[in-house]
Amino acid sequence: MAQREALRELQARLADRMQAARSEQRATGWLAVEAGGCGFLFPLDQAGEIFAVSELRPLAHTRPWFCGVANLRGGLHGVVDLAVFLGLRAQVPAEPGRDGARLVALNPLFGALCALRVDRLAGLRQAGQLSAEPAPEGRPPFARGIWRDTQGQRWQEIDLAELAAQEQFLSIAAA
Length: 175
Description:
- This protein is 21% helix and 38% strand.
- The protein has 4 helices and 11 strands.
- The strands form 2 sheets. The chain has a 6-stranded mixed sheet with strand order 8-1-2-11-10-9. A 5-stranded mixed sheet has the order 3-6-7-5-4.
- The radius of gyration is 21 Å and the shape is globular.
């Protein structure tokens, strides 16, 4: 009898917790990175693992922003230099791993075995730490909101799922 009552109490507590979790608004979180002197925010649910830049195998006849292929946890990933892709820098640094750069893999659920080369990780950000700013017209579809932190740093949110679906991003062959 005591076991049944304990089980009912446990079920009631679990039901209360589940209801509270449903009604709670989840905080939006981002991985903050820097590339080409600019700040970018990647939604945490869209970013995958973070890797040190190791040996990259370049591929001939590819666009300047395509760094090559890297073996990340046993899987071959195409590596894109975010700053070069966005036109913030003319070319990939000669030794892309010597300057503190990191590779941020895209969430594997997108089906794109790809990683973005960024110059530096800048930590995590929550919506409460940032204030929204008006976004200029004519931005690509993957460029979401613009945010400013308490230190005055400007951050551009990048929708990684939208980026991975862009024809320009998928077309690595040199023109």
